[in-house]
Amino acid sequence: AWRAAVDHYQDHCAVCHGPDGNGRTEIGDNMYPKVPDLADPSVQRLSDGALFSIVQNGVRWTGMPAWKRQHSDDETWKLVAFVRHVPSLTPVERDLLHGNSEEHRH
Question: Which tens digits make up the pLDDT trace of 49-61?
Answer without folding.
Answer: 999 999 999 999 9
